Inverse folding.
């Protein structure tokens, strides 16, 4: 509510004309090195010759929720996908610069993208369970890594489902198809599936955009729970959602070359109540985007 | 909005006219469907019409006249039957019969059949189609009485169990398609063994691993072109490569075969490989299609939990595309099953009495058998051809039904 009130106040203060000059934001949040889980340093991402992201700098803090917001087509998802090298799978996609995970560059030669994806889990926009049973959906990851014992798998399945606040709802139908449950439950199943391989970071690409408000709320509550053990990065279109769930917010926009740029990054409170950049202010108050 | 063109949408709105155009098109499409069904019905009618009907049989010796010391032959014990047979056929013929299988070991029924074949010698004198048999029974009986006073008029179903289980024969009364069915099945087994693993493997490589460069695009385009190459060209290729060039392999000579001089490359192995080659592009294209239809979100989810490329293909892409792959493959197999031209070119035998023993046997196949029978002048062979077509169609329909069943049974909802 507080945010919405503020939104109204902000609208009166917004200047109609908008400057197009873009600058790389300075690191407005002071962070000690051990606090940073993922650090994006001067990253450019290309699709073929097209520069989709330009000079991105973004230190992500450990056990916090960082939201990435911005208008459609500004490269939020592209940035998210470069955190676990999912971008490798897109033909023609190339990442330039450094992204570190616990201080280690994940784009260094010799780093195995498969292992990065295990350590940096991902939840997608639309729930995408495997066409298998609920149990198999979660056991798949651990099995890949070589867990064979039934009792171990049982324990992992239960822990992961509890971690995703889904255990009580599905414990009696673990053998039913992953598609037999509701959309919101499917999305939590996908979160449980990501948790089963014990990731350190969980990426969420608009995880609630295909869900109803009650399911959305459950996912948001769950995200708060998860910060005890995980670092979460979420891309969202929903301004209220970013304000509700995140500790930090990064604002992105496209520049005159249609490349996505980071224009502001700060504590969520600051971004929504006292943004430094006019465009951020206009965006979070609903003036465009 | 203000109207600036002067047009009145209410008056130029020709709603009945627009509906009429739709109705005319609909009528055209309905007509096409009716025509298609009409021709199919005619085809089926023609085949069934030739497969059943009256025949007049004439005997060299009347079966009722055969008797030993006043006892009809058909009541004699087995031992006496064999004696009777020995006395009434030439010694050479008797030896041949004994060589095939000693008569003592055969059943009474089999020996009766041999006596009919060797001594009674029935011959088909005239045949009628099913419609004639149904609607002109009086005339047929009259003709039979007049022209064949000693003959016997009977209703014959040309397609029957004996027809399916008997080997080929020059006598239409005894001719069957067992050798042809076995030949066709063995050909199919060779074709499947050859084309399914290679086709599926190539499809997986092209769809999942190959990068998008000009070479791979060229390969993909040409596989599509190969699927459209006429089958006789594959026959010529098979003749040049499998029959001639690989003769030592396809004839079985490399196994140290006995009597190498009589061996040649016109074997089931050559035929099966040729058919396999023929359906290979079809299998590759269908499998690629099936692999492509697995949603990208499933792959993403798999990669997202740390699966390698191969783990993703093996655990998700393949299981989800198997129904599509199988459907496509079975349709390709049924095409191979009905293929005639390439087998004619590589030299399938048209007259084979013995079952194919191995992939190195000479062979005949159902379509070849049909082709050969339709080219014979006598009416009886036309009936045999029609009967074989029924068997071939039933087998093909069975395979297609299996494909449809698989598709429906494993249809996924993502």
């Amino acid at each position: 509510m507080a945010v919405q009130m503020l939104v109204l106040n902000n609208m009166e203060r917004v200047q109609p004309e908008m400057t197009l000059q873009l600058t790389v934001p300075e690191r407005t949040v002071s962070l000690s090195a051990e606090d940073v889980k993922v650090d994006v340093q001067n990253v450019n991402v290309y699709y073929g010759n097209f520069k989709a992201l330009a000079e991105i700098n973004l230190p992500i803090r450990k056990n916090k929720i960082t939201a990435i917001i911005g208008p459609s087509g500004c490269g939020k998802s592209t940035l998210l996908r470069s955190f676990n090298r999912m971008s490798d799978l897109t033909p023609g996609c190339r990442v330039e610069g450094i992204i570190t995970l616990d201080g280690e560059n994940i784009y260094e030669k010799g780093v195995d993208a498969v292992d990065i994806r295990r350590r940096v889990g991902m939840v997608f926009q639309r729930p995408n369970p495997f066409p298998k049973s609920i149990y198999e959906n979660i056991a798949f990851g651990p099995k890949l890594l070589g867990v064979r014992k039934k009792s171990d798998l049982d324990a992992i399945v239960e822990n992961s489902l509890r971690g995703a606040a889904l255990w009580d709802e599905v414990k009696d139908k673990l053998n039913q198809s992953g598609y037999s449950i509701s959309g919101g439950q499917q999305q939590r199943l996908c979160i449980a599936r990501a948790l089963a391989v014990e990731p350190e970071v969980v990426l969420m690409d608009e995880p609630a955009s295909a869900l109803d408000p009650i399911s959305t709320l459950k996912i948001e509550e769950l995200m708060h729970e998860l910060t005890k053990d995980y670092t979460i990065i979420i891309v969202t279109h929903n301004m209220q959602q970013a304000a509700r769930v995140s500790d930090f917010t990064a604002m992105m926009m496209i520049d005159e070359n249609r490349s996505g740029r980071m224009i502001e990054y700060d504590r969520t409170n600051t971004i929504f109540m006292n943004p430094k950049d006019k465009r951020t202010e206009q965006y979070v108050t609903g003036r465009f985007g | 909005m203000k109207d600036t063109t002067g047009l009145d949408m209410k008056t130029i709105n020709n709603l009945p006219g627009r509906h009429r155009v739709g109705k005319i098109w609909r009528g055209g499409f309905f007509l096409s469907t009716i025509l298609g069904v009409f021709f199919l019905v005619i085809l089926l009618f023609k085949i069934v019409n030739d497969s059943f009907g009256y025949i007049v049989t004439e005997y060299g010796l009347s079966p009722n006249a055969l008797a030993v010391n006043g006892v009809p032959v058909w009541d004699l014990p087995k031992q006496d039957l064999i004696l009777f047979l020995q006395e009434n056929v030439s010694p050479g013929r008797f030896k041949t019969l004994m060589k095939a299988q000693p008569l003592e070991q055969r059943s009474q029924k089999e020996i009766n059949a041999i006596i009919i074949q060797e001594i009674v010698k029935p011959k088909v004198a005239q045949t009628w189609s099913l419609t004639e048999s149904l609607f002109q029974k009086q005339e047929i009986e009259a003709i039979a009485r007049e022209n064949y006073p000693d003959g016997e008029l009977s209703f014959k179903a040309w397609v029957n169990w004996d027809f399916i289980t008997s080997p080929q024969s020059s006598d239409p009364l005894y001719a069957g398609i067992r050798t042809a069915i076995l030949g066709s099945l063995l050909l199919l087994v060779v074709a499947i063994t050859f084309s399914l693993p290679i086709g599926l493997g190539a499809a997986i490589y092209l769809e999942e691993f190959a990068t998008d460069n000009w070479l791979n695009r060229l390969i993909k385009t040409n596989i599509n072109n190969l699927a459209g190459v006429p089958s006789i060209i594959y026959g010529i290729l098979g003749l040049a490569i499998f029959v001639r060039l690989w003769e030592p392999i396809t004839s079985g000579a490399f196994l140290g075969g006995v009597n190498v001089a009589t061996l040649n490359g016109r074997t089931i192995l050559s035929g099966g490989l040729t058919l396999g080659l023929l359906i290979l592009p079809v299998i590759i294209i269908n499998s690629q299609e099936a692999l492509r239809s697995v949603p990208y979100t499933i792959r993403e989810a798999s990669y997202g939990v740390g699966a390698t490329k191969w783990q993703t293909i093996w655990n998700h892409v393949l299981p989800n595309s198997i129904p599509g792959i199988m459907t496509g493959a079975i349709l390709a197999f049924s095409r191979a099953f009905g293929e005639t031209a390439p087998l004619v070119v590589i030299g399938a035998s048209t007259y084979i009495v013995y079952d194919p023993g191995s992939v190195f046997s000479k062979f005949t196949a159902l379509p070849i058998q049909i082709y050969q029978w339709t080219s014979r002048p006598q009416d009886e062979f036309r009936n045999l051809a029609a009967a074989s077509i029924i068997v071939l169609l039933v087998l093909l329909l069975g395979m297609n039904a299996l494909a449809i069943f698989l598709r429906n049974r494993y249809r996924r909802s993502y």
